[in-house]
Design goal:
Chain lengths: ~240, ~475
């Protein structure tokens, strides 16, 4: 049984149907990469799967064989679904540490004191080369693009989801930041963690091996293949796929 | 305070049944009354009775009677919050707590029932842990007060206002409701001048820095009662002191009134911080006058959280009368169901090179109304003034209201004035972001609100910061869905 199974999924915002019927199976431990031009619906797909209430979703989405669509975002997260945002939201005045401590308690049912949790957080941060001061700051408050992406990956590594959905983890970063974020993603991917990575670049495949690569266009998957598909798109663009 | 804060909510509900459960008025015998005035209503006879019971000197009685005449002559204010349902004549104006006659000097000497109430709130614990001095007022009078010996030796005075009238008459005559908050200031300051009872007197001699805060805790227990304590803080040149007050009351079916006056004199180069966390029950009208006269190069800081009460009107005022004086006003105001918070800050720049900063954070939910009302005045000829006002509000739902009424009156051409106001709702994006981490909607809202008030909470001593967060969280519970 696939970990995530989508059947003829249709997603709309208001009157506009953005995803027009997608079927996709993501197996246990698999990494899927979704590519596609801007506006093809990649981000919408991930956001809706995470439960963003601004989308209306039809069709079927099963996570571990259970209906995902009736669940609220926090219930999906507690079951092991995680979305790394393309543009992480600022929550000023709330430290990343205090938010993560609650998230951790919600995910694993393990209410820890701040001191005890700090040990976990410190270890995870160190593994990513992040200083302690990183997580005592307000959530994404006054952070650079690269820092925000690192923050998302740090959250991912603490919450150890079953399925991590990464929305353009490599966008808007300089070369150094790309390197660090890529390495961090490679590192946090544990055995058994499945991933869906939305990206414009095949570069991410340097740090992580993909089982499947899909191309989205106008709300549909128009091509699927292995890593070669990603490299071909990076070299030749999308037009040959869409033809 | 000072107790393990996770237990706070439980303790308060044990004590009072919280706001959810309105308590019936208990039998008189269970109210810990030592003495109370016989007749209700606010009469001259009553003024004389209170003064007599306290054994006050003639000059104080005279002051009370003058205030009473002013009170009678002034109409009820018609601006701000609606006070039409406040029946002053139904109030009991003076209730002396049981055990007062023995003048307890040790905590153990306070009557057991009363002690229990304060114990639950962690009052004596807090004193041991982090305070220079502590005091506890039950209904009209202070039952317990203490000041560390090393602080007493510095010449610092921290006593209840009633004792101060007898022990420090010259200081009281000079500062009590004279040029800071005269009785004629407003209807409620006049009422207070006539019927005041309890409160604190703090005197810090020249150059003395009190190392840790002085705290008083107010408990209003008698149903349909008017608590009118007076706080007078005098910091001489170069002195520094931090004063904290907290308050609670059970939630009875009968309305009560809290009408305090706070007067602060911050001498040359002194620093005074006044912190209050108000958590009265919803049947309390909270109508106070708080003001500081700030001298040359002195710093006055007001830090406050207005969480409880049904109706609050409160605008702490800093009069910057000396060159280089500075005022900081940091306030959090929260209005839930049935609450009206008409609060703000007044800063009067009356000398050159004075500066001020006002940060007000308001939250409303469940149909509550928060209104920021502020006055920033820069007098003629006051050059080099810098002032900044920031008032932000969060509206947690579609039925609550946040309003801003800032008045800025600048009569000096080179003043640098900043004013920012933002009224916002809790953003769907923030909610979704936090929920996508596994945090449920209520907790997400409370986190966002916590972040919103953080700039002020971080100014509080740790114990209070934790309590403030807990209280706000409790208030925000069930804010959505």
């Amino acid at each position: 049984m696939a970990l995530l199974s989508l059947k003829n999924l249709k997603i709309s915002a208001g009157d506009k149907e953005i995803i027009q019927g997608i079927s996709l199976d993501v197996g246990e431990g698999e990494v899927h990469v979704i590519m596609g031009q801007n506006g093809s619906g990649k981000s919408t797909l991930l956001s809706a799967l995470a439960g963003n209430p601004k989308y209306a979703v039809k069709g079927a989405a099963l996570f571990e064989g259970k209906d995902l669509l009736t669940l609220k975002p926090h219930e999906r997260a507690r079951r092991g679904l995680f979305l790394a945002f393309q543009s992480p939201i600022e929550v000023p005045g709330v430290s990343l540490a205090s938010m993560l401590r609650r998230a951790y308690a919600a995910r694993f049912g393990d209410e820890m004191g701040a001191v005890e949790f700090d040990k976990i957080l410190q270890a995870k941060s160190e593994a990513m080369g992040l200083a302690r001061s990183f997580y005592s700051r307000g959530i994404n408050d006054g952070m650079s693009g690269g820092e925000r992406k690192m923050s998302e990956i740090l959250q991912l590594s603490v919450l150890e989801p079953r399925l991590a959905m990464l929305d353009e983890p490599d966008s808007g970063l300089d070369v150094d930041a790309l390197e660090r974020v890529g390495a961090a993603i490679g590192k946090v991917r544990r055995n058994g963690m499945s991933m869906i990575i939305v990206t414009h670049y095949a570069r991410v495949l340097r740090s992580i091996r993909a089982d499947r690569v899909h191309v989205m266009h106008l709300g549909k998957i128009v091509a699927s293949g292995d890593e070669k598909l990603a490299h071909k798109i990076e070299e030749n663009g999308y037009s040959w796929v869409l033809r | 305070m000072g107790i393990a804060m996770k237990d706070m909510e439980k303790k308060i509900s044990e004590l009072y049944g919280r706001d959810a459960k309105l308590s019936a008025v208990p039998e008189e015998s269970k109210l810990n009354v030592g003495y109370k005035t016989k007749e209700k209503g606010l009469t001259e006879k009553l003024v004389r009775e209170i003064s007599g019971v306290k054994g006050e000197p003639e000059w104080m009685l005279k002051k009370r009677l003058e205030s009473f005449a002013i009170f009678k002559s002034k109409p009820m204010p018609t601006w701000g919050a609606d006070l039409s349902k406040l029946d002053l004549d139904a109030l009991t104006a003076f209730v002396r707590p049981k055990g007062k006659e023995n003048e307890p000097t040790k905590w153990e000497e306070v009557p057991k029932d009363i002690r229990k109430t304060f114990d639950v709130l962690g009052i004596p614990e807090a004193e041991r842990k982090f305070l220079s001095g502590a005091s506890a007022q039950y209904d009209s009078e202070v039952l317990y007060k203490s000041l560390r010996k090393n602080i007493t030796e510095l010449g610092v005075v921290f006593t209840d206002m009633d004792s101060a009238v007898k022990e420090y008459p010259e200081l009281v005559k000079r500062y009590f409701m004279t040029r800071c908050v005269p009785a004629k200031d407003n209807k409620f300051s006049a009422l207070h001048g006539a019927f005041w009872s309890g409160g604190s007197f703090v005197y810090v001699p020249e150059g003395v820095k009190v190392p840790s805060p002085l705290q008083i805790y107010f408990m209003m227990n008698y149903p349909g009662f008017g608590q009118m304590e007076h706080t007078l803080i005098v910091a001489e040149q170069g002195a520094s002191v931090q004063y904290i007050e907290g308050c609670s009351a059970p939630y009875y079916t009968r309305d009560s009134l809290h009408s305090a006056v706070v007067e602060i004199f911050a001498g040359k180069g002194s620093r005074v911080r006044y912190t209050s966390i108000q958590n009265w029950s919803r049947n309390v009208y909270n109508l106070n006058t708080k003001r500081a006269i700030v001298s040359e190069n002195a710093i006055m800081e007001w830090v406050g959280g207005t969480l409880g009460s049904g109706t609050t009107m409160l605008y702490p005022c800093s009069m910057l009368v000396g060159r280089g004086a500075r005022a900081e006003h940091l306030t959090i105001s929260l209005a839930g169901k049935g609450q009206v918070k008409d609060t703000g800050a007044k800063v009067l720049h009356m000398a050159p090179n004075t500066s001020s900063r006002v940060v007000s954070k308001s939250i409303c939910r469940g149909g509550g109304l928060v209104r920021y009302r502020g006055l920033l005045h820069v007098g003629k000829g006051c050059t080099g003034v810098k002032a900044n006002v920031r008032c932000d509000s969060i509206i947690a739902d579609k039925i609550s209201v946040a309003e801003t009424v800032p008045v800025i009156d600048v009569r000096s051409s080179d003043a640098v004035i900043g004013h920012e106001a933002a009224v916002g709702r809790i953003s769907d994006e923030q909610l979704f972001y936090l929920m996508s981490r596994g945090i449920d909607e209520n907790e997400a809202v409370s986190l966002i609100v916590r972040g919103f008030i953080e700039p002020i909470v971080k100014e509080l001593p740790l114990e209070y910061a934790v309590e403030m967060n807990r209280l706000v969280e409790m208030e925000m519970e069930g804010a959505v869905g």
